[in-house]
């Protein structure tokens, strides 16, 4: 079916939930359980065209995270049209959709590789990004991240836990290294942190929507927490001025000092499970 901007989109409906995935970026733009508000935030101001990433949902960040001089931000995977390899309904009622990243000129500066992405939909959302280094003699170095935007009722009623004691690079303080001191992190202004060396699950408690979101992961050593706050929100062309109040990104990946160095012939699997519970 056509999604917004006439970009092709797959809609999958299971007994528990509905998901909408654009081929542009293999971008999960929507996931909603029955009788629950959407799990994923999607900006009212998002662009839906071939040249820009979608603002919200789950951008797939690969092969670099953050800014690269002359190459833009967050890699090229999020603006490529991925191919659908298969759609597999399972006996338990879940449905898996497998995408692969097409070849592109930007990939030519890397050793040869493939990237597959499997999205499995049930009462929860399972995501798996699989990178395979096809080279026989060269390591493949890259960053990856599932840059998940969660919908929240009101950012001032949200806490994020699971990161106490973890070191982070504070991007709003010129990458200063700090350690998290809080059991429950609250957000009252711009937050942009790369937590390093953490495999821990993260819980987002949202008292306004009355739900807990659990982010569980494996093959991911970094967790990024981002909310642009009001000033940055106003500067972003594809994000509403007030929308920082209704979202928070908790991103699972391998970024910065934790870029992946994949041996020749090696495979890396980044897995994330997103689930919710009432509270
Ligand atoms: C976060 C980064 O992951 O993504 C932030 O840590 C960045 O620094 C944000 O601003 C959004 O990036 P973009 O390229 O989608 O505007």
Note down, in words, how this protein is organized:
The protein has 1 helix and 24 strands. It is mainly beta and 279 residues long. Strands 7-8-9-10-24-20-19-14-17 form a 9-stranded antiparallel beta sheet, with no helix packed on it. Strand 2 and strand 3 form a beta hairpin. The radius of gyration is 18 Å and the shape is globular.
Index terms:
eight-stranded antiparallel beta sheet; 1 helix; 24 strands; 46% strand; binds 6-O-phosphono-beta-D-glucopyranose
SSE topology:
Blueprint: E1 9-13, E2 17-22, E3 27-33, E4 60-61, E5 67-68, E6 72-73, E7 83-89, E8 95-100, E9 113-121, E10 125-133, E11 140-142, E12 144-146, E13 149-151, E14 158-161, E15 167-170, E16 176-179, E17 184-186, E18 191-196, E19 202-206, E20 211-218, E21 222-227, H1 229-235, E22 247-254, E23 260-262, E24 267-278
The chain binds 6-O-phosphono-beta-D-glucopyranose.
Residues 53, 73-74, 147, 171, 192, 224, 226, 251 line the site of 6-O-phosphono-beta-D-glucopyranose.
């Amino acid at each position: 079916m056509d999604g917004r901007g006439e970009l092709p989109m797959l809609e999958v409906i299971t007994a528990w939930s509905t998901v909408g995935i654009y081929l542009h970026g293999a971008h999960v733009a929507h996931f909603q359980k029955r009788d629950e508000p959407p799990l994923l935030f999607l900006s009212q101001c998002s662009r839906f065209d071939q040249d820009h990433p979608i603002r919200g949902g789950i951008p797939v960040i690969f092969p670099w995270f953050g800014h690269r001089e002359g190459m833009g931000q967050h890699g090229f995977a999020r603006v490529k049209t991925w191919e659908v390899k298969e759609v597999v309904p399972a006996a338990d009622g879940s449905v898996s959709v497998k995408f692969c990243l097409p070849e592109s000129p930007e990939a030519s500066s890397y050793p040869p590789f493939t990237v597959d992405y499997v999205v499995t939909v049930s009462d929860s959302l399972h995501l798996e990004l699989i990178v395979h280094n096809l080279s026989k003699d060269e390591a493949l170095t890259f960053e990856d991240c599932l840059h998940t935007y969660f919908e929240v009722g009101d950012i001032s009623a949200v806490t994020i836990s699971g990161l106490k004691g973890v070191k982070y690079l504070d991007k709003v303080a010129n990458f200063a290294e700090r350690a998290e001191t809080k059991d429950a992190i609250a957000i009252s202004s711009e937050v942009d942190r790369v937590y390093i060396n953490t495999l821990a699950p993260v819980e987002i408690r949202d008292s306004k929507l009355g739900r807990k979101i659990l982010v569980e992961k494996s093959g991911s050593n970094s967790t990024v927490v981002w909310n642009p706050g009001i000033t940055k929100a106003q500067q972003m062309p594809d994000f509403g001025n007030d929308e920082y109040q209704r979202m928070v990104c908790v991103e699972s990946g391998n970024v910065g000092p934790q870029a992946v160095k994949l041996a020749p012939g090696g495979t890396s699997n980044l897995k994330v499970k997103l689930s919710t519970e009432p509270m």
